[in-house]
Amino acid sequence: MAQVISDRRDIEFVLHEQLEAENLSKIHEDFADFNKKTIDLVISEARNFAVKELLPSSKEGDEQGCTLENGKVTTPESFKRLFDLFNEGEWLAPTESPEWGGQGMPKTVASAAAEYFNGANYPFMMYPGLTQGAGHLVEHFGTQEQKDIYLKNMYTGKWTGTMLLTEPGAGSDVGALTTKAVPNGDGTYTITGEKIFISGGEHDLTENIIHPVLARIEGAPEGTKGISLFLVPKFRVNEDGTPGEFNDVICTGIEHKMGIHGNSTCSLSLGSKDNCIGTLLGEENKGMKAMFLMMNSARLLVGFQGFACATTAYMYALDYARNRIQGKDLLEFMNPDAKSVSIFRHP
């Protein structure tokens, strides 16, 4: 198999010689099953999936892109099958507890697998990446009821997640947001506002999308000190756990970003018909602090994407230099009968 994403030897060196990841199975009971044999098997499966499934769909995904029609976004043709396969392999949240649909995998091992995934098709990987991040918010700040409703559905990829911060008039200055939340008297809130640049904000990959939304409760202080965090599903959840009534979250536009056309970057309207209902996630006026849990994770993910893409670019350049026939070997340059050789030998 060609080395087209990351160098397997490099990954093995970091895992086994530099970090000695297999020792985690000896010093931490939660990782008892992750000996060297298991780790190597995980990395092999990740590499195979990345090369055989994710990588071939990357070019197609960028060329087809996402389309918006009547408030509904259609993702590239191959992404639905890809998302199903990804979730069958339990790759979305491998580091999370098996209780909630994860594998209990060490972060070190999961990161090595993710290097292959992001290097192969990072626009696709933004869907599961943001879902795991949104799940962390529910896991850390949610009530038991919220965890029971959302967490396993998100960590298994049955539902996806996003993060709704930016508004047309509130970018870096998040404290200037105007999205508001009005208490309904039953523990829920009516949410109204506009959000932009929402990755994975609307798509056809799953039956429901869960939006953590920053908004200000009526009467709360101005600035970031008055921001609260809410869970707003695309479809409200019935008592039996199935998606129910549409929750008045409408996609009004999608951006066209170079290199990530396969991911739907959306503008969303919340409560345009005064029928968007959310529940408080965490404490009132502590939403900004809570959201930083996901924001910081997303920042690391962006850096990881850059690293994985750079590694893939290097591997392609290396393969090209090895195989592109350029001219005579420099040591045979004056020999009229010398054969042409690769760029490696004729820089």
What string, H for helix and E for strand, traces the elements in order?
HHHEEHHHEEEEEEEEEEHEE
Q: Tell me the total number of β-strands.
A: 14
How would you write the strand order of the largest sheet?
4-5-12-7-6
Stretches where pLDDT is under 50 for at least 5 consecutive residues are none
Based on helices, strands and strand pairing, what is the structural class?
A: alpha+beta
The number of helical runs is 7
Helical percentage: 25-40%
Oligomer type: single chain
The CATH class of the domain at 160-294: Mainly Beta
Proper CATH architecture of the domain at 160-294: Beta Barrel
β-strand percent reads 15-25%
* Rg result: 23 Å
Shape assignment: globular
Give the rounded overall mean pLDDT: 94
CATH topology of the domain at 160-294: Butyryl-CoA Dehydrogenase, subunit A, domain 2
Distance between the termini: 26 Å
Main sheet summary: 5 strands, mixed, barrel
Word description of this protein:
The chain has a domain at 160-294: Butyryl-CoA Dehydrogenase, subunit A, domain 2 (Beta Barrel). The model has no long low-confidence stretch (mean pLDDT 94). A hairpin with a 5-residue loop joins strand 8 (235-237) and strand 9 (243-246). A five-stranded mixed beta barrel has the order 4-5-12-7-6. Strands 1-2 form a two-stranded antiparallel sheet. Strands 8-9 form a two-stranded antiparallel ribbon. 40% of the residues lie in helices and 20% in strands. By secondary structure, it is an alpha+beta fold.
